[in-house]
Amino acid sequence: MNQKVALGIDVGGTKFLGVAVGEKGEVLVECRKPTPDNPKSILEALTEILFEIRAQLPSTALIEGVGVGIPGLIDFRGNVHYAPNLNGCNGLELGFELKSRLDFPVVIDNDATCAAVAEHLLGAAKNCNDALVFTLGTGIGGGIIAGGKVVRGAEGFAGEVGHMAVDPDGPLCPCGKKGCWELYASGSGLRYLAIQAGEEGHLKNILHHKGGKLFDIRGEDITEAALTGDIGAQTVMERFGRWLALGMANLACVFDPKLIVLGGGLVQAGDLILASVAPFFDQMVEGWRYRPTIPVVLAELGEAAGAVGAALLAKEIA
Amino acid sequence: MNQKVALGIDVGGTKFLGVAVGEKGEVLVECRKPTPDNPKSILEALTEILFEIRAQLPSTALIEGVGVGIPGLIDFRGNVHYAPNLNGCNGLELGFELKSRLDFPVVIDNDATCAAVAEHLLGAAKNCNDALVFTLGTGIGGGIIAGGKVVRGAEGFAGEVGHMAVDPDGPLCPCGKKGCWELYASGSGLRYLAIQAGEEGHLKNILHHKGGKLFDIRGEDITEAALTGDIGAQTVMERFGRWLALGMANLACVFDPKLIVLGGGLVQAGDLILASVAPFFDQMVEGWRYRPTIPVVLAELGEAAGAVGAALLAKEIA
Question: How many domains are contained in chain B?
Answer without folding.
Answer: 2
